[in-house]
Structure formats: C-alpha cells, structure tokens
Amino acid sequence: MKPTNLLFILSDEHSRRVLGCYGHGMIRTPNLDRLASQGVRFTDAYSNSPICVPSRAALATGRYVHKIRFWDKAIPYDGSVPSWHHRLRDAGHEVTAIGKLHFRSADDDNGFTEEVRCHRRHATA
Fold first, then answer.
1. pTM score > 0.85 for this model?
2. Does 102 qualify as catalytic in the annotation?
3. pLDDT digit string (tens) for 85-94?
C-alpha cells in the first residue's frame, strides 16, 4: 500500500476555557479554531503524566511511564523504546518532526526521517 499523508499536531498548554472553538466569546484563536474544525477535537482527554517529558514519551510509545522508565525532565525519551514514529518510518512513510519534542537528542534514533528544531530567541534585559 502506498503511504498516505498524516498530520499529527500536538500543542501544549492550551486550556479549553480560552479557545474560540470551545465557545469562548472574547478570546480569538482563529488558527486553532480552523484546525479544530477540520480535525479531531476532544471533549475529554487523559495524560499519562502531569510532566511534559514523560507524557510525550508515553504518547510516542503507547506505553505507561512506569513501563518505559522515562520519569521526568532529567530522563527524556531516547528512542530506545520503539515508537509509532519508528513503525511508520519502517513501513515506508516519511516521518518528519517539526518543533520542540522534549526528546533527549536529535542524534538519537527517535523514529523520524527528519527532525526540524525551531529555536526561539529570548529577549535579554
């Protein structure tokens, strides 16, 4: 079967209380609203960890944090436990990650054919 396109967007720290697509009357979030209207929007969700690094590792691998042992920010995902990224790539798909992943290093085999890191400049006082 020829690989088809799949776009998976994960954004952090968005409360449904302040998004237009969930009915907020004052705050405008046109880009997120457009994505929500053309994709999947959850009314309830569960995260395996309240900490972003282990939560992303659990999402990537489909396994519980206590099983994969990527516990916190000091022990980020290193590609040693196969992820859905590995499975897609190994099945012939081009798998590109864009943005901040909270994985250990782009030098690890995280399952991507390409990783594009976005760097922000921080203002100095």
1. no
2. yes
3. 999 999 999 9
